[in-house]
Design goal:
299 residues; alpha+beta; 10-stranded mixed sheet; 6 helices; binds zinc ion
Length: 299
């Protein structure tokens, strides 16, 4: 297998849109996967059968991929059929899911398709932590088996060490246990068949920042990103006056990192600026590399 040009993506399991499923019955909990060498947990507690869920259909109908707040996810019968026909690899399970309670929508008349519970394999494929710009807390030795250490402060991108790739199309990799990686082919199949609720980020664009207070110029970066968020929300021009006021006070924010610029703006414009608070929260999520907050899906 040639490694040249192999690209990986991260499956976006945290979605603002799409159907929702939550597991019913918390009693059937298995063990969390853990490292045999250092004992670190590598995921959440296993979800054992029977797989029963409360399901809420989204306005667009029944999705092919559904992500309960869990490591595992649900796939439709259509996904299962395509996955098998295309010979994709990396998912295990495919156990039937029972929808115990269904929240319907008036516009969606049909019944749900059969759903199956799946999980991605924990493969021996390794995330190249150096190429990914991992920064651990000081003096935190990395376990040679699971590649975990203490607190991970930040990473700039996710780079799979292609030489270690064990060939799965969907998998967890050693060194970044929380993300599900997929191959270019997996993404291609999902797009070809327009499978619903399959969204991907190129792995090299996945970053994380858990110690933002250590970042120089954090205040002005947040300010600029907030302005960008407001501009993207300003299709009807309702925020023109706020944007103009922000541009006027930018120099002051640059000069004084402690300046309460939202308070300053409210005073200047004589109104409560909840939308700026929302935009600042959204900006923060963008800057730390986390998905936007679900309570704040204006865009
Ligand atoms: Zn370990």
């Amino acid at each position: 297998m040639t490694s040249a040009g192999v690209r990986f993506y991260v499956l976006q399991t945290f979605r603002l849109h799409g159907c929702d499923a939550s597991k019913i019955g918390d009693d059937r909990r298995g063990e969390a996967p853990h490292c045999d060498a250092c004992g670190k947990p590598l995921g959440l507690l296993a979800w054992l059968p029977p797989h029963q869920v409360e399901f809420e259909v989204c306005p667009k109908g029944y999705c092919d991929l559904v992500y309960p707040p869990h490591d595992d996810f649900l796939v439709s019968a259509r996904f299962k059929e395509i996955y098998e026909r295309e010979g994709l690899r990396g998912l295990v399970g495919f156990e039937p899911v029972t929808i115990v309670k269904l929240k319907r929508r008036r516009r969606i008349k049909e019944d749900p398709p059969p759903y199956f519970w799946v999980k991605a394999v924990r493969s021996q494929t390794v995330v190249d932590q150096e190429a990914s710009g991992f920064e651990w807390e000081k003096d935190s030795p990395v376990c040679p088996v699971c590649r975990e250490a203490g607190f991970l402060k930040r990473w700039k991108r996710l780079v799979i060490d292609v030489d270690t790739w064990t060939g799965e199309d969907v998998f967890y990799a050693l060194g970044m246990p929380g993300e599900i990686f997929v191959s270019e082919r997996f993404k291609h199949v999902c797009e070809t068949y327009a499978l619903r609720n399959a969204a991907f980020i190129p792995a090299e664009q996945c970053f994380g920042e858990f110690c933002f207070w250590e970042i120089e110029d954090w205040e002005i970066r947040t300010f600029d990103e907030t302005l960008a968020v407001l501009q993207s929300w300003n299709k009807k021009g309702h925020f023109d006056h706020i944007i103009a006021a922000m541009q006027e006070i930018r120099d002051r924010v640059v000069a004084d990192a402690t300046y309460d610029w939202i308070g300053g703006l409210e005073e200047r414009l004589g109104e409560k600026l909840d939308q700026v608070v929302d935009a600042a929260a959204e900006a923060h999520y963008r800057l730390v590399g986390m998905p936007p907050a679900p309570w704040n899906s204006r865009s």
